[in-house]
């Protein structure tokens, strides 16, 4: 990873390739929805990168000699720095893309921005569609964690139960329900509104966990 190195590690080269996807998402001439799709592709690529390529680097490092471990240590540090840089770019592009969506009267909202009509709709949707799909797992000595599904999205939940703190994980059933749901327009404001399923699942599950 020194400046005198003649070759670039393939892992860093791959990150440079994924940056090209971010450049497409940053292009303001690209339709707003397509920009979000590019951001989704970038995120999926990065997930696979850590599952496959970074895992392989760590495996090689664990099996290497003491002299070889320095190379892998430097490589992993370089990967971490590059990924942090890309994530900062991602966030900037994401918020810019959301601004663009709002210009087209498309809004991605969180649970705190819902009016009463939207909140009632979300509660009903959760009861009818989401609740049956959720299976939170408490993390303690009394519960055995099932094997986590590859390529799935999980929420890490911290619970304050009286004087104790408990932790749980929750798989978001995006393959069965999708990551976004369309909700009614806010009263007095035209446009299309959407709520992330992860937010919906998290908020509604916290109360249920506290009751156990």
Radius of gyration: 21 Å
Q: How many independent structural domains?
A: 2
Give the strand order of the largest sheet, numbering strands 1, 2, ... along the chain: 1-6-5
Q: Tell the overall outline.
A: flat
Protein topology:
Blueprint: H1 10-26, H2 32-62, H3 66-103, E1 106-109, H4 116-130, E2 137-138, E3 153-161, E4 164-172, H5 174-177, E5 180-183, E6 192-196, H6 197-210
Parallel strand pairs: 1-6
Antiparallel strand pairs: 2-4, 3-4, 5-6
Helix pairs in contact: 1-2, 1-3, 2-3
Task: Describe the model.
The protein has 212 residues and is an alpha+beta fold. It folds into two domains: 10-103, Methane Monooxygenase Hydroxylase, Chain G, domain 1 (Up-down Bundle), CATH 1.20.58.310; 106-210, polyphosphate kinase like (2-Layer Sandwich), CATH 3.30.1840. 56% of the residues lie in helices and 16% in strands. It contains six helices and six strands. The chain has helices at 10-26, 32-62, 66-103, 116-130, 174-177, 197-210, and strands at 106-109, 137-138, 153-161, 164-172, 180-183, 192-196. Strands 1-6-5 form a three-stranded mixed beta sheet. Strands 2-4-3 form a three-stranded antiparallel beta sheet, covered by helices on one side. The protein is flat and about 65 Å long.
């Amino acid at each position: 990873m020194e400046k005198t190195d003649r070759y670039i590690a393939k892992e860093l080269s791959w990150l440079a390739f994924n940056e090209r996807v971010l450049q497409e998402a940053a292009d303001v001439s690209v339709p707003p929805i397509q920009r979000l799709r590019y951001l989704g592709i970038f995120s999926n690529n990065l997930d696979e990168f850590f599952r496959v390529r970074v895992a392989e680097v760590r495996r090689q490092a664990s099996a290497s000699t003491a002299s070889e471990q320095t190379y892998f240590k430097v490589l992993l540090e370089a990967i971490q720095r590059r990924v942090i840089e890309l994530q900062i770019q991602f966030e900037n592009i994401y918020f810019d893309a959301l601004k663009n969506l709002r210009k087209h009267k498309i809004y991605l909202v969180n649970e705190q921005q819902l009016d009463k009509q939207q909140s009632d709709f979300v509660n009903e949707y959760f009861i009818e569609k989401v609740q049956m799909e959720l299976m939170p797992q408490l993390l303690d000595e009394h519960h055995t964690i099932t094997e986590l599904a590859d390529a799935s999205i999980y929420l890490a939940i911290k619970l304050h139960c009286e004087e104790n703190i408990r932790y749980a994980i929750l798989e978001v059933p995006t393959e069965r329900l999708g990551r976004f749901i369309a909700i009614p327009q806010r009263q007095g404001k035209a446009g299309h509104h959407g709520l992330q399923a992860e937010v919906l699942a998290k908020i509604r599950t916290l109360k249920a966990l506290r009751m156990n």
